[in-house]
Amino acid sequence: MKILVTGGTVFASRFTAEYFVGKGHEVYVLNRGSRPQSEGVRHICADRFSIGNELKSIRFDAVLDVTSYNENDVRTLHEALGEFGDYIFVSSSAVYPETLPQPFREDMKCGPNSIWGGYGTNKLAAENYLRTNVPHAYILRPPYLYGPMNNLYREAFVFECAEEDRPFYLPKNGQMQLQFFHIRDLCRFMELLLEKQPQQHIFNVGNEESIDVRSWVEVCYGTLGKTPELRYVTDDIPQRSYFPFYDYEYKLDVSEQMKLMPDTVPFDTGIAESYEWYANNRELIVRKPLNEFISKNFK
Asked: Which domains does the chain have, with CATH numbers?
């Protein structure tokens, strides 16, 4: 297949491009060329807002839109395309209002979420544009993505704490639940959509089971053969100042995904893969001053 991947240089989009190259497809990536390109891709060097006619002459069998954040991003790309087959948009679970009963299902009414703010409403506007203008598009709503190439300061922060034998500070009682999805599973699911062409076009995607933040930290430390010294923060201190996730837990119903793809990467395996990548790519992590805050405020 001829596949267009938006982005292709960082985490989800880069992993996606390399995944489909590895499957033998002809993969084009659309980016400005400000970072090194993956081996085996065909690079279309352009800003998505000034593509011109660069894409009109290529008939893509699939467009994998991993990097659009709002309606304008999607519209600009759609208008720049010539003839194309399938369109898969990676949206977000942030489109579900936190006031809905959980687990969130695909048929629930979406809207503003006070935790995610504009990020969620912008993703929803992008979804609505596609539902009107590209009705055959598939829309995926993942929770937190993880795995190799994740340059966000999430598991990388825990790995650093483990390497330095730091105690780890957890919010409240450490029982807040998080739902994850391995980036390879996201790619596998996109591959299944292209192959099976299901009638349903909006899917929650994610691991069927959530994990509490204490267990998440223990798995990350355990990858290094270590056990964390856990400390709990019960004071009214903004959680994001010392911990990489918001004070918000939610659960996606992924039963429709599981019908098509009943197996996902075991979490401890995925975290081990994450550490292997991190250990060889430390310079790519986008760090936040979490340790600085901890050093100044906690003893």
From this structure: 2-146+181-204 (3.40.50.720), 155-179+208-250+265-293 (3.90.25.10)
